[in-house]
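Teaching assistant here, posting this on the class forum so everyone can see the example we discussed in section. The complex has two components, and the goal was to see what a joint structure prediction looks like when all of them are supplied at once.
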Amino acid sequence: MSGKEPAIRASFAGSLGGFTLDVAFEAPMHGITALFGASGCGKSTTLRCIAGLQRLPGQLFVNEEMWQDDDRGIFLMPHKRAVGVVFQEASLFPHLTVGKNLMYGAKRSGVPAVIPPDDVIDLLGLAKLMDRDPIALSGGERQRVAIGRALLSQPRLLLMDEPLSSLDQMAKDEILPYLEALHEQLSIPLLYVSHDITEVARLADRMVMLSSGMKIAEGPVQDLLERLDLQPETGRFEAGVLLTAQVTGHDEKFSVTHLDHHGQAISMPARDVAIGSEVRLRIRARDVSLATKRPEAISVRNVLSGTIVEVAEDPQSAHAETLIDIGGGRLRARITRQSVAELELAPGKPVFALVKSIAFDRGTLSVATGHSTNT
Amino acid sequence: MEISELWPVVRLTLELAIVTTILLLVIGTPIAWWLARSRWRWREAVAAVVALPLVLPPTVLGFYLLIALGPDGPGGWIAGLFGGRTLAFTFQGLVIGSVFYSIPFVVQPLRNAFESFGDRPLEVAATLRASPWDAFWSVAVPLARPGYVTGAVLGFAHTVGEFGLVLMIGGSIPGETRVLSIAIFEMVETLRWAEAHLLAGGMLVFSFLVVSTMMIVEKRMGRASQ
């Protein structure tokens, strides 16, 4: 990121009840930036410092506006910061109806509504809930109201602290499409705290990885997911990469959607996305196998040709992680060390990647969102 | 004494209890708020001072108050501003004494109520641009409503029922300090059983109504705020 571009610039260093935090990062004024790490890594504390709910020595600029600078003794109180926060629990005010909860911040924002209330209510599907009491809502509904309430306070920056982690799977699946819709329609940046790499891969454009109170990596999600050295943090089971591809057609007979990724054909279970639109695919390392010759008579539909870029063997286990360049993007494959030896896999060697299942992460109706695909 | 003579006693008692309750809520709120939110090391010592009237014999509290309200104490000085000589044996003095006597019955439920919802609602309010003052009125007070109901009922009932303290600082001046519990005592002393029965029975019914109202209200609010 260039120094001139409007951005969120945060740096905090200090101790809080025996926990030491020392992070500095930047995030652009658009799109979703994830703060990712295991629990206790300091990501929530960082978020609270940005909201002004906690104070650690440091600096915070949001779009050239100074929110905190301890060198100059500046610390803006939380209610003076144009920030919207969605907490893990929806934390709706129990004494107010949904409608009044939504308008609580809107009434106090003191600025003309850049984010129109009706749009937010539509986008989050809240119209039917307006007169209800928070107690009468499901977990997913409550979190939607909390998101709407934060948005209606007309923030310049939206913060979410594990907004899905207190929800069951059904409620999560209910909320995720709303978050994706937000990502496409929202003009303000979102900092999203999560310990779930699947969530991050699905939603975020950039990520800041934290471990034990320190930043260990920062960059586009796609790039960080391709880095084999971050494996301990991104997790073994869910490790994988993101690819962008274009929808080229639908096969109704077999319920298949055809995609094109830099000249290589990919097919996946049918999804209702317009032909020509750009989509984001998540391919997990455990779903990719490698072959040195193009296999024939095989049930796997996706065979992508590429070249091995990196092989990382884990001497403690039977596995090896490999990174394959397939022209446009990169794939990760988890195979056994024995295969590496027998197939003589090494950087530079041409291979065929066999992909079993592909998860569909996000579709954009226009051509790529731009900021999510820089490599 | 006729029935009509009982009314001034009842009215004075109600006036005292209402004025005292209002003052208790006004004074008790900042104390309870501070006790609930402060991280000061000696906070519990302050809490103990506020709770002292719970364990102090009313006559002891009354004795000190009598000195404080009298011509040589701060009460006498205040009375001087209004052309009086002392606050002892006056309605105003009785109100001041009653506030001291019942303060723990209001502060404790309020403090519990303020502590029960934690920091989160206030943090949420702050991120929604509410200043601390605004958040206090729009979030903390409404959320503490069960505490206000309990505090008000306890403060009111406790003031109606006080005896020893009134005897010490108020005496029994008709229309000024002669409240219900004093009147009952005097009636029994002078063997006017019928009137004592009437007042005591009224108190019994009143107390029952207070307690049951409180329980019903609390149950309903507890359900509503879950």
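For the discussion questions: Chain B has a mean pLDDT of 88. Residues 94 and 170 of chain B are 6 Å apart (CA to CA). Think about how each of these relates to the inputs above.
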